[in-house]
Amino acid sequence: MTTTPAAPPASRPAPPPIRTRQRAAAVVRRADGRVLLHRLERDTFWALPGGAIEPGESASEAIARELHEELDTAVALGNLAFVVENFFCHAGDSYHEIGLYLHATPLPGSLLAASDGPYEGVEGNQTLIFAWFPLHELAALDLRPAFLRSALAEPPSSAGALHIVHRDAPQPASAIVDTPLSFS
Asked: What are 143-154's pLDDT values in tens digits?
């Protein structure tokens, strides 16, 4: 009996590569509990201010640079709030972002301390909108990563930073690992 060899499996296109990046973000809070968020004018979602960490730059240096470039202001940076592994898709690309989120407060006399905003900033040739939000409004916002809606509503932890792994849909919902990180 003669057998016909099986046809080779149909070739499937390789999935697009996952882009990796490092991001630093500021959790800027005012004394009244409001938190500062920003978005590109054309976007519908909000995020914490910050941006890419350049080679040789610390997270605090990246935040200071980004706020200076985007809003021509500065903040007082504090302790690490979150270490975030964020998996998401944006504009057709998949990302694995490692984020270092630091507590921050407006400097006395700065733009953020002197006015309630909103403020207009720039990202390259695009307009950024910065605004203060009360914590009770975060649950209704399109805030990314989504874990921030609940995490920012909690008082800052005195135990140290939280390690968070967040995956946008369709993967499993975000997971918060509430084991404080300790640095000696």
From this structure: 999 999 999 998
